[in-house]
Amino acid sequence: MIAATPEWFKDEYLGIELGQYIGIGVLIVGATAAHFALLRVIALVVRGRYAGDDLMFWERERRRLNRGILLLTIGITLLVGFPILDFDPDVESVVNQVASLVAAVAIILVAYRAIDILVDVLARRAGETETMLDDSLVPLLRTSMRLFVAVVGILFVLQNLDVNVSSLIAGLGLGGLAIALAAQDTVRNLLGGVTIFADKPFEVGDWVVVDGVEGTVETVGFRSTRVRTFYNSLVSVPNGNLMDAGIDNMGQRRWRRYKTTLGVGYHTTPDQMQAFVEGIRAIIQANPGMRQDYYIVEFHGFGATSLDVLVYCFFDAVDWNEELRSRHVLNLDIMRLAETLQVDFAFPTQTLHIAETPGQPQQLPNVPDRARLREIVNSFGPGGESGQRVDQRITAGHESVSDSPHAQTEEGRQQP
C-alpha cells in the first residue's frame, strides 16, 4: 500500500484492511466500466458500418460476445489490479490462479462465440448459392473448430493449473496408437466424408441410389450420410462405403425417360395405325414440358394379342412428382386421341376358329394362283406400286410427305 494513506485505511474487518475493501470495490467498478465501454465501442462500430438487415444480423451476433467479454474483463482486472492491494502472498497466489482460470475460460468462450459468428456469416453466404452441399459443410466446420478450440483451451487451462502438459500429451500418444488401430473404420469414414465434399457426387436434396439404399439425401456428415427413403425411414450410410460404391444420382438428371408399349387391337386398319402414331408424335411436339429434339413413336411389332406401338420420350421435370404429373397429362392425351380415332386398346384375348360345323361346308379363303402370288410379291418389291418405302403421313390425297427428321434419323432410332 502507499505510505501516505490515512491510518483508518489500515483498520481491519474480518482480517482485511478497510483500504483493501475500497481497492476491491474500485476493481469491481473498473471492470464493470471497462466491460460496458468495450461493448459500447463494438456497438458503435457495428452501427456505423451496417444498416437494415445487415445491422440486425450483426447486432444479434454482437450480443453473443457479451458474457465472454465480461469474464475476460474480470480476469484481466484481477491479474493486473489485485497485486496492488498488498494482500498476503498466499492469498495473492490463489487469486492469481483463479484469475488465470477465469481469463482462460473467458478466452475459450470468446473463441466459441467467434466461431459461431464466423459460421453464421458462412451460412448466410452458403444460403445465397445454388448448391446445397456447402450448407451441410457449415455445421461440420462449426463442430470441427469448436473441437479444436476445446482441446487447445483444456491444455491451456491445465498448464495454468501447473499440470505437466508435455507428459500428459506423451501418455495420450501411447494410448492414441492403440485407439488408432481400433478406429480404422472411423478414419476410413472420415476420409470418405472429405472425398464427398471434394468431389461433390451429390448434394443435399438429391434423389440417389447408393449401396442398396434409395432416397433423398438429407444430411452429409464427416462420418456418414443420411438418406431419407421413400418409406420415410432414415438410413445412415457410412462414408467409407460411399468411396467404393457406385452412386446413381437420379436428382441430376436433365431429362426423365418414359418408355412404354401401347397395345392396340388387331382389327386396327393401317391408316388408323398411321394416324395414331402421328397423333402421339404431335402430342409430344405440343407439350412444352417434353424433350422435342429426340423421341421415338413407332409401330413396333406384332404381339401375341395386340399390335404394339413403342413410345419412347423424355420429360423436363425437376422431381418425381412433376414427372408423374407430366406422364398423367401425356397418357390422358393419348387416350383422347385413341377415342377420337376409334382405336381400341387390346386386351389379352384368344380367338377360336371353327373350321367346319355340322351341316355346313367348310369355308376356306380363295387363294390366288402362283402367277398372281408372284405379281403381288413383285408389287411390294423394288419398282412395285404397293407398300410404303418410307414413313408417310396421313394426308387428304394420295401424296406422301416424309415424317419429321428428328424422329426418323438413324441416331433417333437407337436407344441411348
Keywords:
five-stranded antiparallel β-sheet, SH3 type barrels, alpha+beta, single chain, 11 helices, Alpha-Beta Plaits, 13% strand, 52% helix, 416 residues, 3 domains, rod-shaped, disordered C terminus
Mean pLDDT: 74
- Outline the low-pLDDT stretches: 398-416
Beginning-to-end CA distance, first to last residue: 93 Å
Q: What is the share of helical residues?
A: 40-55%
Shape: rod-shaped
Quaternary structure classification: single chain
Topology as H/E string? EEHHHHHHHEEEEHEEHEEHH
Largest sheet: 5 strands, antiparallel
Can you tell me the number of structural domains? 3
> What is the number of helices?
11
Classify the secondary structure makeup into a structural class.
alpha+beta
Strand numbers in spatial order across the main sheet: 6-5-4-3-7
Radius of gyration: 41 Å
